[in-house]
Amino acid sequence: MSRRENYEVTAERLLGPIVERVGVNIYDVEYVKEGSDWYLRVYIDKPEGVNINDCVEVNRAFSDALDEEDFIEESYILEVSSPGLGRTLKKDRHLQHSIGEEVEIKTYKPIDKVKEFSGVLKSFDSESLTIENEEGERTFARSEIAVIRLALDF
């Protein structure tokens, strides 16, 4: 396991009791470098949506837990937020929760001269993902997909 993955797993373990107490769920945890800064980002969610008070409460409690455990070597910026409406679907649990929802897919390389697709997420497995739109069903190899996110419908 890479250092980044280890930090994310450890952070999720520390977050478990905090989010349970606050009444929210962990959507995702990521440890990323942007420019010269490291970020530990925590995305929380609940069925009715999170609010600023949820984020502040999780941030304060998690910051204290991080100070106590002190497992991240570099300095970093902690961010706690909602995953947003157009949330990225990175993990199988995100995809499972989004079956039947409208999604947008961007591929690494053009497929039939197109790199962006949308449709209703029908199914997925470890190797592929299937959407359905007005043109019918289309299956993508997961290795072809750069990003998949919920579609914003305004």
How would you characterize the overall build of this protein?
The chain is α+β, with helices and mostly antiparallel strands and 154 residues long. It has 2 domains: 3-81, RimP-like superfamily, N-terminal (GMP Synthetase, Chain A, domain 3, 2-Layer Sandwich), CATH 3.30.300; 92-150, SH3 type barrels, CATH 2.30.30.100. It is built from 3 helices and 8 strands; from the N terminus they run αββαβαβββββ. The protein has helices at residues 3-22, 52-69, 92-97; strands at residues 25-34, 37-45, 77-81, 102-111, 114-124, 128-133, 136-141, 145-150. The strands form 2 sheets. Strands 7-6-5-4-8 form a 5-stranded antiparallel sheet. The protein has a 3-stranded mixed sheet with strand order 1-2-3. Strand 4 (102-111) and strand 5 form a beta hairpin. The radius of gyration is 18 Å and the shape is globular. The model has no long low-confidence stretch (mean pLDDT 94).
